[in-house]
Description:
- With about 250 residues, chain A is of the alpha/beta class.
- Chain A has eight helices and ten strands.
- With about 240 residues, chain B is mainly α.
- Classes of the chains: A alpha/beta (about 250), B mainly alpha (about 240).
- The site of adenosine-5'-diphosphate has 10 residues of chain A, from α1.
Amino acid sequence: MIEIKNIAKSFGGRQILAGVSGTFKQGDTSLVIGSSGTGKSVLLKCMIGLVKPDSGEVLYDGRNFLESDLNEQKAIRREMGVLFQGSALFDSKTVLENVRFPLDMLTEQAESEKLDRAHECLRRVGLEAAADRMPSEISGGMKKRVGIARAIVLNPKYLFCDEPNSGLDPLTSIKIDQLISEITDEFQITTVVITHDMNSMMEIGEKIMFLYQGEKLWEGNSTTLTQSHVPELNEFINANKLIREMEK
Amino acid sequence: MSRLGSYFIFLGTLFRNPEKFRVYVSLILNECTNIGVGSIFIVALVNSFIGAVTCVQTAYNLTNPFVPKNIIALIVRDSSILELAPTLSCIVLAGKVGSNIASELGTMRITEQIDALEVMGINSSSYLVLPKVIASVLMFPLLVIMAGFLAILGGYIAGTLAGVISSEDYVSGLRFEYKPFGVTFALIKTVVFAFLISTISAYRGYNVRGGALEVGAASTAAVTNSCVAIVAADFILTQLLLT
Ligand SMILES: Nc1ncnc2c1ncn2[C@@H]1O[C@H](COP(=O)(O)OP(=O)(O)O)[C@@H](O)[C@H]1O
Ligand SMILES: [Mg+2]
């Protein structure tokens, strides 16, 4: 379980996050939704320690991440997997090398063990055949899959995905969402997914948090989503529906 | 001024809790190939021609019949070793290696590859930058030794082909009043330039914010800042070591 308490962050006097709190449960795929520029990525970066919040706490199963010393932080980081918005694959390495990179850097496993594990993860995301290709030679959806394989290679307890379906067609989006949700169930991971995709919300939204201009305005799930009385949320959903209809 | 401060802070992060040593070995070898082998051609080309031009031009300017011909070779030798080979090669390398380092790191920054390293708990600045700095400091002196040699050779070929100096005069000029410290001086300069180019360019690339446009700007800034640093350091080192 991950708990965040009153996370606030400003950049150069502009407040981006105004005290966001919430909990993310183990085995759940929790969504953080909101339109572009509301601070979803900044919230995620605060949680994983890439951005230092001005105030607030992040607790990983009770361990205070931001207050920990360097070794404790490293230990918690080893339990995290992150899928970045642009996949963030190392473009000088092959798909397989990308997936085994965390093993190479952070474990003392034998060569064959590492290879087995990397292949196993690639198989899990359905990309064994692409093991020797370079990131520049594969499609956006495949990159996301490789990103997922790399994120889960160390058996993370916590998985973070920043807009896993940005830039993908609707069908590929759904497949990526399902993959994330399946992996979460299978390995009982605490998963946080940032998205503004309506399909994802209906499809995998076991728990949804709505951010609006740096504040949490609503919390619920895919069934209560459309019955809220929060005008900003309804506006957001309607705009999304409109886009979805236009796509059809 | 604040940029200078953050540059020094950046230098500090390169050495704070680095990764295991064996991680670096293969990275450094890789960068040596990139930086060293990849730059041989351009450095060789520029220096051979600069040597040739220096020789012919010096001959053209020395019209006084009382000045012995072998002075031409001596001038080519000293200007090549002391200034042309180290400084000019490093200016060329600032354009090639510096812009390459800045754009590579800048691209890694904007595509979140650096963030990906950081969340794994890897010190991204030392993992990415240190091998480039070490490889530059190792390879630049080798390139400059080759450069000095080729400049003198270029001068010889051009001078004898153009008929401005005989090969005996050229060789005797090369050996006249030769001071080995010149070579040491050139290598000291080169090591300093290599450190400046690689760290300044890495600093520029590593701290890119934004998109592709900013990566291009960082790459340009890396080259111009490196060149300024080179000529400034050249002046200071010459003052310190040759006077
Ligand atoms: N490092 C930064 N420095 C300054 N401003 C930033 C930084 N990161 C994000 N921002 C600003 O914070 C706001 C929220 O960004 P972000 O969290 O990326 O939005 P989104 O919800 O679309 O993910 C944006 O206006 C962005 O310009
Ligand atoms: Mg975002």
